[in-house]
């Protein structure tokens, strides 16, 4: 299966050249000054889902990772074209006494799992990497960890998959799914997280 078919992007999206960017050049469409601190990274590389999708249509070699918990992805869905799910945190069976929600535990192997993915794809740490989550904060946290570990081309999708909340608390403002980009529930072969993949 060719890279474009695996990503599910055939016939979907607009080439970067159509938006004024040169082929092979990733151009940010996000003003860093408009971002909450939780969505920022030291590299300052940010994309909307639409721009990320366009870049991956133009260059199918760009790696694309979702850092949400696999349970969340199972029930909410995910962008098509992911290379891997590497959770930043995973749900436990313990309930937090104040929030009444399941507690999350940090994935201690998150950086090692990204390194393993890059090795498996024959990529150096300077290769472009797009990171997403629900709304752009966990992906920024993952990006900061990766940058500290020597990755130099990490882009945060600042709207994530579900996007920001509207006035009623629903995630319906923006994000990959709300922008009508390709998404689904079925994972392509090799994308699912394996706790022992690092």
Whole-angstrom Rg: 16 Å
Mean pLDDT score: 89
Strand order in the sheet with the most strands? 1-8-7-2-4
* Helical proportion, percent range: 10-25%
By secondary-structure content and strand pairing, the structural class works out as alpha/beta
CA-based shape: globular
The low-pLDDT segments are 1-6, 10-23
Order of helices and strands: HEHEHEEEEHEHEE
The counted number of beta strands is 9
Oligomer: single chain
Q: In what range is the share of β-strand residues?
A: 15-25%
Distance between the termini: 25 Å
Largest sheet: 5 strands, parallel
Helical stretch tally: 5
Can you give a write-up of this model?
The chain is built from five helices and nine strands. Mean pLDDT is 89; it is low at 1-6 and 10-23. The protein has helices at residues 3-7, 49-58, 70-76, 110-120, 137-148; strands at 46-47, 63-66, 78-79, 84-85, 89-95, 102-106, 129-132, 154-157, 183-184. It is 23% helix and 16% strand. Strands 1-8-7-2-4 form a five-stranded parallel β-sheet. A two-stranded antiparallel ribbon has the order 3-9. A two-stranded antiparallel sheet has the order 5-6. A hairpin with a 6-residue loop joins strand 5 (89-95) and strand 6. With 198 residues, the chain is α/β, with parallel strands linked by helices.
What secondary-structure arrangement, pairings included, does this model have?
Elements: H1 3-7, E1 46-47, H2 49-58, E2 63-66, H3 70-76, E3 78-79, E4 84-85, E5 89-95, E6 102-106, H4 110-120, E7 129-132, H5 137-148, E8 154-157, E9 183-184
């Amino acid at each position: 299966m060719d890279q474009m078919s695996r990503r599910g992007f055939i016939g979907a999206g607009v080439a970067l050249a159509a938006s004024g960017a040169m082929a092979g050049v990733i151009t940010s469409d996000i003003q860093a000054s408009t971002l909450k601190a939780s969505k920022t990274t030291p590299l300052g590389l940010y994309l909307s889902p639409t721009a990320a999708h366009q870049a991956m249509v133009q260059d199918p070699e760009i790696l694309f990772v979702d850092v949400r918990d696999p349970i969340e992805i199972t029930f909410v869905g995910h962008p098509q074209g992911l290379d891997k799910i590497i959770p930043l945190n995973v749900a436990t069976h313990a309930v937090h006494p104040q929030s009444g929600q399941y507690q999350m535990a940090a994935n201690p192997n998150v950086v090692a799992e990204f390194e393993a993915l890059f090795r498996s794809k024959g990529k150096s740490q300077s290769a472009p990497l797009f990171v997403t989550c629900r709304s752009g904060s966990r992906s920024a946290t993952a990006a900061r960890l990766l940058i500290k570990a020597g990755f130099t081309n990490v882009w945060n999708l600042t709207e994530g998959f579900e996007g920001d909340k509207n006035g009623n608390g629903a995630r319906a403002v923006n994000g990959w799914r709300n922008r009508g980009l390709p998404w689904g529930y079925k994972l392509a072969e090799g994308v699912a997280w394996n706790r022992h993949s690092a």
